[in-house]
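[step 3/7] inverse_fold.run input=structure_tokens len=94
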């Protein structure tokens, strides 16, 4: 079993147009690394900062089973098989 990652339209060019992809890992950071190995370039769109201490970009919201990871440990938030991860870019407008 794997972790389903829902991909927003703006990032689907990295996943060959797929709306959802499978990934694995014990933490969100591991999951992002696994995504990067299968879909090169996506990590850079999700994270900012040095490789040894990256953080989620301010305008990227990530939810694990509907829980905002910013309140669940950030990149160290645990994930496990069967979870659903949703990536949502923040949208501003007027």
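[step 3/7] decode complete -> sequence:
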């Amino acid at each position: 079993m794997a972790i389903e990652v829902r991909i927003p339209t703006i990032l689907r060019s990295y996943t060959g147009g797929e709306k959802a992809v499978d990934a694995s890992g014990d933490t969100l950071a591991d999951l992002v690394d696994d995504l990067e190995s299968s879909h090169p370039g996506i990590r850079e769109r999700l994270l900012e900062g040095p490789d040894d201490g990256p953080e989620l970009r301010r305008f990227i919201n990530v939810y694990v089973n509907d829980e905002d990871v910013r309140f669940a440990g950030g990149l160290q938030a645990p994930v496990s098989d069967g979870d659903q991860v949703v990536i949502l870019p923040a949208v501003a407008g007027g």
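[step 4/7] annotate
The chain has one domain: 3-89.
Residues 19 and 52 are 29 Å apart (CA to CA).
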